């Protein structure tokens, strides 16, 4: 019997990798796709297989024309039906004022956050619609709810991502496809996202001050538990949107906050 497939676009060592592990533990075949660091991808696959799960890895540049489309078509034909897709591509270009945000940088945020999601849905949803079921989980950020100074590209891009999720839900929920938009409202304890942005020393200092035993950083493994729950909700009580944050953080609507780095 063919295993159901969980496809993760943006399968790094943080949320994406932990989601892959969580679904593989439950009998899914995890298809992990990422743009760079093949050694890291191979490590994730080895870790999944060491736990008794199964996984495949794909190196793709999701911005490249046709890359997402080829990947989905290949998996559906050669691996198995994609039961759950996780769109976990980041679109953060850093804290930049209006004058220092180039046209190319602004467009790149949109291509990663919004256009990539549109392309995934356009190629994947016909398969899911034919089966009468499917799940699309979309990782988002505080910037989808609040535009801070220096976040022109990011806020516009993930704000568009949120609206696209609403449109997809409006068209496809009645056809059995569950779309869920997940706002990550806080810093994630992830070495290859926040860790790269801050650098090793600053990242470790933040972990010691706020994370680790303090539970003040979002733990990817716990986030993955929520993703798994969302993917298995009964259709009489589907969640379209939720937000996740550490217990010690104020919610995005309670304070102006610093520039969104999520």
Give an account of the 3D structure.
With 262 residues, this protein is of the alpha/beta class. It has one domain: NAD(P)-binding Rossmann-like Domain (Rossmann fold, 3-Layer(aba) Sandwich). Helix content is 44%, strand content 16%. Strand 5 (134-141), helix 5 and strand 6 form a beta-alpha-beta unit. The relative contact order is 0.15. The model is unreliable at 258-262 (pLDDT under 50).
Strand content: 15-25%
Stretches where pLDDT is under 50 for at least 5 consecutive residues are: 258-262
Query: Terminal Cα separation, in Å?
Result: 39 Å
Mean pLDDT: 92
Rounded to the nearest angstrom, the radius of gyration is 18 Å
Protein structure class? alpha/beta
Number of domains: 1
Number of strands: 7
Order of neighbouring strands in the sheet with most strands: 3-2-1-4-5-6-7
What is the fold-level CATH name, i.e. the topology? Rossmann fold
Shape field = globular
Tell me roughly what share of residues is in helical segments.
Answer: 40-55%
CATH architecture: 3-Layer(aba) Sandwich
CATH superfamily: NAD(P)-binding Rossmann-like Domain
- How many H/I helices? 8
Compressed to H and E, one letter per element, the order equals: EHEHEHEHEHEHHHE
Q: What is the CATH level 1 assignment?
A: Alpha Beta
How does the major sheet shape up? 7 strands, parallel
């Amino acid at each position: 019997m063919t295993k159901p497939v969980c496809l993760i676009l943006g399968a790094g060592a943080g949320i994406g990798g932990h989601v892959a592990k969580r679904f593989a533990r439950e009998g899914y075949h995890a298809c992990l796709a990422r743009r760079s660091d093949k050694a890291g991808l191979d490590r994730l696959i080895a870790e999944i297989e060491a736990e008794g799960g199964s996984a495949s890895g794909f190196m793709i540049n999701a911005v490249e024309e046709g890359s997402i489309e080829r990947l989905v078509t290949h998996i559906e034909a050669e691996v198995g039906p994609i039961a759950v897709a996780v769109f976990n591509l980041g679109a953060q270009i850093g804290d930049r004022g209006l004058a220092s945000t180039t046209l190319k940088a602004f467009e790149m945020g949109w291509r990663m956050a919004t256009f990539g999601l549109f392309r995934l849905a356009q190629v994947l949803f016909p398969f899911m619609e034919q089966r009468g079921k499917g799940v699309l989980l979309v990782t988002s950020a505080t910037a989808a709810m609040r535009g801070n100074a220096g976040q022109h590209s990011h806020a516009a891009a993930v704000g568009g991502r949120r609206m696209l999720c609403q449109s997809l839900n409006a068209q496809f929920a009645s056809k059995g496809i569950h779309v869920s938009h997940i706002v990550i409202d806080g810093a994630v304890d992830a070495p290859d996202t926040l860790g790269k942005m801050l650098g090793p020393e600053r990242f470790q200092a933040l972990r010691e001050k706020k994370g680790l035993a303090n539970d003040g950083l979002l733990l990817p493994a716990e986030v993955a538990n929520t993703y798994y729950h969302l993917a298995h909700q009964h259709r009489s009580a589907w969640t379209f949107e939720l937000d996740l944050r550490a217990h010690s953080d104020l919610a995005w609507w309670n304070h102006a906050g610093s520039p969104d780095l999520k």
